[in-house]
Amino acid sequence: MKIAIVDDDVNDRELLIQLIKASLEHEAYTLDITQFDSGESLLEAFEPEQFDICFLDIYMKEMNGMTVARKLRALDPDLSIVFLTSSKDYVYEGYEIHALRYLLKPPQAEYVQAVLFECLKQSQKNQRRLTVSVGKKIHEIPYRNLLYIMSVGNNIEIHFQDSHLNLSARHTFSKTVAPLLTDERFLTCARGIVVNLSHVKDIQKDGFLMDNGEFVPISRRLYPSVKNTYIDFQFEHILS
User: Fold this and answer.
1) What is the side-by-side strand order in the sheet with 200-203?
2) pTM above 0.85, yes or no
């Protein structure tokens, strides 16, 4: 597990390192912890997918943690961000950038451990892939990149943020989407349509508005259960 700790107080960094190591001492994970004394130093060295989790102090002398978090989120949408703070003043802004959670200073051992295991669970989700073939080429598509999949005539369309992939008739829709439907992010919203709820921007009276601006219909028959599932999904992920 690769971890970044960003805090301008060296004593706070060292305390957190001790708690992280204690939390994982009986687990089979290799730890790689990198310390930064400012958000600027992290951003200068940062590369996408470089870290699994970033512990980020909100109140620092120069660039504050919330500003750093927004820049990190733009560079690496899947990075797990945990805020370190002595105040909950920024809690609602944290939802905006999808922070994993907050740790109040000084952090307690049980909360550090809970955050680490939540991060591991999230990392496992990010590694899931859908395997499909187009001609002689095999595609390993990260679940997180899928917006929705739909059956169109005899073909299947897999939609991404700004493109889509066509699968031939030799693929059946049910077999293609079967692995996705074991993941809480994916939901059947109409006959021949499966949507990734983590990419839904809003639910309307007859469909989902996706975060790339596309519209995905919801069948009238399924609408009540689909809406409830979507609300539950949003609620759970806001609180996580």
Assistant:
1) 200-203, 207-210, 215-217
2) no
pLDDT in tens, 220-234: 999 999 999 999 988
SS (H, E, C) the chain: CEEEEECCCHHHHHHHHHHHHHHCCCCCCCCEEEEECCHHHHHHHCCCCCCCEEEEECCCCCCCHHHHHHHHHHHCCCCEEEEEECCCCCHHHHHHCCCCEEEECCCCHHHHHHHHHHHHHHHHHHCCEEEEEECCEEEEEEHHHCCEEEEECCEEEEECCCCEEEECCCCCHHHHHCCHHHCCCEEEEECCEEEEHHHEEEECCCEEEECCCCEEECCCCCHHHHHHHHHHHHHHHHHC
How do residues 117-164 score in pLDDT, each as one tens digit? 888 777 777 778 998 888 778 888 989 899 999 999 888 999 999 999
In 3D space, the residue among 232, 200, 196 whose CA is nearest the CA of residue 213 turns out to be 200
CA-to-CA distance for 137 and 108, rounded, in angstroms?
49
Cβ atoms 216, 148 nearer than 8 A: yes
